[in-house]
Write a structure and sequence with these properties.
The structure is a homotetramer.
Chain A lengths: L19 E4 L3 E2 L5 E7 L13 E10 L6 E8 L8 E11 L4 E9 L3 E11 L1
Parallel strand pairs in A: 2-8
Antiparallel strand pairs in A: 1-3, 3-6, 4-5, 4-7, 7-8
The structure holds fe (iii) ion (FE) (4 copies).
The site of one fe (iii) ion has 6 residues of chain C, from loops.
Chain lengths: ~120, ~120, ~120, ~120
Amino acid sequence: MKSIGTLYQSGDWKGEKHVPVIHAPETVKSGEPIEVKVIIGEEIPHPNTLEHYIGWVKVYFFAEDAKFPVEIGNYDFSAHGENGLFTEPNITTRFTTEKSGTIFATSYCNIHGLWENSVELKVE
Amino acid sequence: MKSIGTLYQSGDWKGEKHVPVIHAPETVKSGEPIEVKVIIGEEIPHPNTLEHYIGWVKVYFFAEDAKFPVEIGNYDFSAHGENGLFTEPNITTRFTTEKSGTIFATSYCNIHGLWENSVELKVE
Amino acid sequence: MKSIGTLYQSGDWKGEKHVPVIHAPETVKSGEPIEVKVIIGEEIPHPNTLEHYIGWVKVYFFAEDAKFPVEIGNYDFSAHGENGLFTEPNITTRFTTEKSGTIFATSYCNIHGLWENSVELKVE
Amino acid sequence: MKSIGTLYQSGDWKGEKHVPVIHAPETVKSGEPIEVKVIIGEEIPHPNTLEHYIGWVKVYFFAEDAKFPVEIGNYDFSAHGENGLFTEPNITTRFTTEKSGTIFATSYCNIHGLWENSVELKVE
Ligand SMILES: [Fe+3]
Ligand SMILES: [Fe+3]
Ligand SMILES: [Fe+3]
Ligand SMILES: [Fe+3]
């Protein structure tokens, strides 16, 4: 069977405009709100037109003692020129966790497919 | 015919925990990125459990010369206790517009239904 | 305050291509799976291009003894010409209920805004 | 870097209740509407409670000459007991393609993470 998992792309976000850039603290206290900013195209802007755009970002957390990742949120970027309106692929979300683990951000370009990135989070 | 439109609830967010609080600039320059923060329960926290939670926020912009609103984005809050993880109903999104108009935020509580709020945005 | 609720449009789906057409049984047994088909443009097709498309449908159920509607599902139509692919605004969903009430379908056109329709469901 | 792609699980849907079952024609004519049904738990039902449920399904198409997959649709299952309402993880979607390729269905359980399946589609 083919696997969608093999179709996720990544790379250095300083050179590859599709890679989600994740801004998050490295260390937090248990239960303290964690603000995570995800930006696509922070260094090199990605096109934002009706024909070519970033459709969404999903953020997951994979605790170090867990077997499965948990979805934190899904963020759809809806406007790409309608009546002069453009949604930027740039969101901030907030969550709490009692455990250390990995924050994953995945994103979708309607022309260039699925992308991902991750950072580690330490809970003290 | 019945209308879903009549089922949107609102109120003063200082007393009603479901009303989305919208933080946005009052005035921006044309094409300048506008950061909009939407929080549910900023003054009085809303429950965040597997049984009772805020499911999503949608943000629309209705330009003053427009006939129809345009969706800026949709934001799903996915974790409500899974493995000790809680997504907070608190997001920041970014968009650009060349026209003045109204920013609407709508939200959904799985127990208490649909809510809304709006603020005016002036483009100079 | 302005209300997004006033911006939902409706009409006769035989003449207005944006109105969601809801196919559902009129009567079901309690707990029996209910199949609901929602189609936009069943009689008069709606455009489906990168510039103009139906973005999503949401389905709600408002039980006759309830104070608030409950969301059954959200359905995003994502492809509008990418690599020759077109998602049609046409879905079937399934749910169960023990109570009679109203099924609402709402939809969003990126150019023509928010639309709605409803049908009654009797549980015996 | 860790990869979310490695976290997609699969298996035989006759024995593993999380695997999305895809019902689609094997062969279609170019541009002819293709109806795809995706069911989670067709053989062995998956739990559907506020604590444990299937959150969503995403469907992609990867044309045989393409470099990237294109998202056909996203389907959120929203009700898990609210006021006696249960959305079943069972949808039908429709799309058209001029090219042969692979239909992927991915799904998310709030407790058991990400799952996937795929079938081949031949366009004559
Ligand atoms: Fe791209
Ligand atoms: Fe509530
Ligand atoms: Fe339209
Ligand atoms: Fe499960």
